[in-house]
Amino acid sequence: MSYVPSPYRPLLLKPGARQFALAGLLARLPISTFNISAMLMIQLQYDRWEIAGRVVAVGVGVWALQTLPTARWVDRKGQRMMIPLTVLFVVGTTILIATAMTRGPEPLLWLGIAIASLSGPLGSLTRARWSHILDNDDDIHTAFSLEGAFDEVLFVAGPAVVTALAYSVHPASGLVLAAIGMVAGITLLLAQRDTEPPAHAEGDSGGLGFKVPPAIISVAAVAVALGAMFGALDISTVAFAKELGHESWAGLVIGVISSGSFLGGLAYGARRWRTPLWKRLVIASVALAAGFVVLANMPNLWLYTAFGFIAGMAIAPLITSQDSVAQRVVKQSQLTEGMAWLRIGLGAGVALGSWLSGRFIDQSGHGAGLQVMAWSAVVIAILAIAGSPWVRRDTEAADRRRGVEREPGDTLPPAEAHGEQPPIPPIV
Predict the structure, then answer these.
(1) 156 near 276, Cβ under 8 Å?
(2) The whole model's pTM is what?
């Protein structure tokens, strides 16, 4: 891309910023490549989409459960706690590959993917560093939007590489790539001590417990449907291309969708929005639903790819809006936990979408999987609209608690500017 929006340039010129941004990008390579690589390897070895979807569902479920405790652990002890988590990821990946290559029993696949899914808060590491080196809310908003755009590239475009590798090199090559990326990224990231944020003591923050704001519950429900859409998108796109005899093109198709999401994320982050947050959440949800319903009914792979670019432009703005809700309605000391509710919802949705679409594809072909994607997108819009009163109430109450007096149409307050704690992206 020849044009880089000017708000992002000064941030990347900060001492150490480009170095930790690149290292973080490598470290969170598994966010996009791990699950789809496991799915492709298992389908190629066992010739069953349902088994692949079931194993991936187990992995995402474990990932969702570990999200909150590992995030708290790394916050309290420091980012060097990622070393044992990285070791677990490599061990689990090795078990998964060894079992699949020998066509071992499915429970061993579950064991391997469960251990590998104890990967820690990969997406929060660089965001924590941005929060540490920046002291301006607008700068942090821009930095987090840039990271969000990178995340979209990773968890939607990563399959472009690993799909081609799985079909043209070796079924396990995508998993090997994910492991190499994480080990290299964590090594480079931890070597940069100047930008590493300090550890937080155990007593520095109180958890939410069961006092979860209704706005968080609302966007977490939207995240479940969004995750189901993502799970169905990946597996159905691969099945679509494979049925046409162009399985190696599947990653490229998903990469085009990713480029739309990337550009949408950059544009969304570069602008200071005057529209209230709850309205932006609803608008992004409806746009996403409309785009992916149309996408599910494209008659051929060429139109599917072209329209996928357009539909994908709503992905990053929706996720960023969801993150903004959490960042706005909970205390700074509770934000890791608040964000974890969204990622748990997203992870649960991916597990559900992968399993359902895999089962229906085995029975009726790729079109059935695309319908899972379409209906998940419709549910996204329904849940966003239904939950908007709670989102509006809680975000406006947060403004009042922070002493923000804002008339409709004013610019967003600093509290929403992604400036308190880093979000934790999905491991899709």
Answers:
(1) no
(2) 0.74
